[in-house]
Amino acid sequence: MDPRSEQQIALEPHHADAPHHPRQFHHFDTMEQQYQSSSLGMWVFLIQEIMFFGGLFVAYLVYRHKYYEAFGIASATLRIDLGAFNTAVLIGSSLTMALAVNAAQRGLRKRLMTFIVLTMILGSIFLGVKVVEYTEKFEKREIPGKNFCFEPQGAACTNVSHAPESTPAILQRYATGHFFEASHAAAPHEAEATHGSGTTAESTHAESVEPQYRVRDAIGDVPGSSERDRSKPGAEIYFSLYFAMTGMHAIHMIVGMGLMAWLLFHAYRGRYSQTYFTPIENFGLYWHFVDIVWIYLFPLLYLINRHIGAH
Amino acid sequence: MSAHIGSLKVYVGVFMVLMIGTAITIYAAFLDLGLFNAPIALVIATVKAIFVVLFFMHVKDSDRLTKITVAAGIFWLAILLSLTMTDFLSRTWY
After folding, report:
1. In whole angstroms, what is the distance from residue A34 CA to residue A32 CA?
2. Are A36 and B64 spatial neighbours (Cβ–Cβ below 8 Å)?
3. Are the beta carbons of B22 and A298 separated by less than 8 Å?
4. B79 interfacial to chain A (CB closer than 8 Å)
5. How far is CA B22 from the centre of its chain?
6. Which residue of A has its CA nearest to B46?
7. Distance from CA of A191 to the nearest CA of B (A)
């Protein structure tokens, strides 16, 4: 980074011939042109983001149509109160971001910093609620994969090799490399020890996995299978899309939090003024885009088929 | 620079519209509207998105180039959604 002050740079010999704004790059004629180029670039990036999320939304649309019932049943297991709360929080953060951009345009440095901090706080609350929601899904094993368990009525899953675990236990198991098995079941001598003492949950593991997979791998109806079994592949696809879409949305928010920390640092240093606030405005566009994605995710993932339970 | 400086009243007004829209969409989700549940939810979401794009993202007061860019993006998204679904909905094996 150039240690000289902006005033010093502006007084360099070549600048003396053609004085310009300290933030203007030489390949632009005016600040106006530089601003418009930057704005257009940001919008083109956001169009790319629309295409990126659009792929996920198309996948959702196709499978929502194919597994209509299963999507409704799976969606009903989400906590609508947390989803609604998060929607309000994200809309609020969009408001504080709009006010931050407004403060930057007016050259109000302290107000700009205040609103960036408020936006970061609201973004943190959103991500914190998401942690609560994901934790619940992990503990119930409603995670697509080998141990996927979807029993909204509370029945035990036959393919799950062991009882539901707490999140610290799951993290402990992952840390020791046992991604699919409980760590005690993976160690042979310990498994034998529990086998002898009559614990059934672990011992039924080997026999029960195979038939369950036949049902889950089937696309569409399996003759003779119950209504509940038929909904399983669709429910697993629903949760795949749920985690892909909300996860990708959350990654965008985490990136946004990092960018806001960077903007806050430069706002504190006094980089932005009434004549130069492009980074704040472009980040605002990004944050509002992330808000729009959630505006669609909330009804598509949380609110489908809620009226069926009302009967 | 010619960037439009919006009024605080407009921002708070848009925020209120978005919150009311969220409340309506939750209320509508619990009503049995038959085939219309999904379209109504999507229409409300689209109205909310339009408010965000026009006012929070300043597209209403931006230059024509930005407006064309946004319209092109939405148009391409429409192609992505509609052509994919016409294919899936018109096949017997699906």
Report:
1. 5
2. no
3. yes
4. no
5. 13
6. A296
7. 45
The single residue listed with the structure tokens 């038959």 is B34
Nearest-Cα distance to chain B for A240, in Å, is 20
* Residue A222 structure tokens: 């399996």
Q: Do A58 and B65 touch (CB under 8 A)?
A: no
Q: Which residues contact A120 (CB under 8 A, 6 or more apart)?
A: A257, A260, A261, A264
Q: Which residues of A touch B17 (CB under 8 A)?
A: none
pLDDT grade for A175, boundaries at 50, 70 and 90: confident
3-state secondary structure chain A: CCCCCHHHHHCCHHHHHCCCCCCCCCCCCCHHHHHHHHHHHHHHHHHHHHHHHHHHHHHHHHHHHHCHHHHHHHHCCCCHHHHHHHHHHHHHHHHHHHHHHHHHHCCCHHHHHHHHHHHHHHHHHHHHHHHHHHHHHHHCCCCCCCCCCCCCCCCCCCCCCCCCCCHHHHHHHHHCCCCCCCHHHHCHHHHHHHHHCCCHHHHCHHHHHHHHHHHHHCCCCCCCCCHHHHHHHHHHHHHHHHHHHHHHHHHHHHHHHHHHHHHHHHHHCCCCECCECHHHHHHHHHHHHHHHHHHHHHHHHHCCCHHHCCC
Return the minimum-mean-pLDDT range out of A82-86, A146-150, A203-207, A278-282: A203-207
Which residue has tokens 């609604």?
Answer: A84
- Residues B69, A62: C-beta atoms closer than 8 Å: no
ipTM of the complex: 0.94
CA A245 to chain centre: 7
Q: Calculate mean pLDDT across residues B21-41.
A: 92
